[in-house]
Design a protein that fits this description.
6-stranded mixed beta sheet, single chain, alpha/beta
Length: 214
């Protein structure tokens, strides 16, 4: 069998069932870490054991459980942190480390293109990563659920738009990798979620607002 064209490792770390991801280019052995919120030594060890050099970091949103390890990570690996421009002001790391991005931007990890989808609602700068048929959805879309929109900066109308107009239209074969291990299985697909996730079946914004209590 040929070597896979993407390196992807899903790590469940910390007390809040967070998923931290490593994604990379198997040929160049370059990888990026996504949402380094917890247990940075374990993240670094996982990349090293697999023979990958960390060259980038991505943040799906600014909540502490997804970014708390950034400072420690940057001490070990001086890498740029790609965060949506609307969430960048909330990160307490050196401005020089931050690379603000926008929806529709593409960032290369080695030669692996990572497309950034701006999916506000959970936070103003929430973003999902679409890479080689995989969607790393942060706290926007979970398996059979969606992110909260009642925290500071949350916007239920924006979340509904993100779910219905940005994620639901993706190819049904797209594999979903959420930001937390809240379900019986660690991954799903967009097709499965369209059929079984109640939040992707709500017909109107008004109905969605009633469901989320707004």
């Amino acid at each position: 069998m040929s070597e896979p064209d993407i390196y992807l490792k899903q790590l469940e770390l910390g007390p809040m069932q967070n998923f931290v991801y490593l994604i990379g280019d198997p040929e160049r052995r370059e990888a990026a870490v996504v949402d380094p919120g917890w247990e940075v030594p374990r993240i670094l060890d996982a990349a090293a054991q697999d023979g990958y050099r960390l060259t980038k970091a991505f943040v799906t949103h600014h909540h502490f459980d997804h970014v708390m390890g950034l400072a420690e990570l940057l001490q070990a690996a001086d890498v740029p942190v790609h965060v949506h421009r609307d969430d960048a002001p909330h990160l307490s790391v050196a401005r020089s480390s931050l690379k603000p991005v926008g929806g529709g931007d593409t960032v290369l990890v080695g030669r692996l293109p990572v497309q950034l989808l701006h999916t506000p609602g959970h936070t103003p700068g929430s973003q999902c990563l679409l890479v080689n048929g995989r969607l790393l959805s942060g706290d926007t879309l979970f398996i059979r659920a969606c992110g909260r929109c009642d925290l500071p900066g949350g916007d239920p109308a924006a979340l509904y738009d993100s779910l219905v107009n940005k994620l639901k239209p993706l190819d049904e074969a797209t594999v979903l990798y959420p930001g937390h291990h809240y379900a019986d299985t660690p991954t799903s697909t967009i097709g499965e979620e369209k059929r079984a996730n109640p939040f992707l079946q709500i017909p109107t914004l008004q109905d969605f607002l009633r469901v989320v209590g707004r």
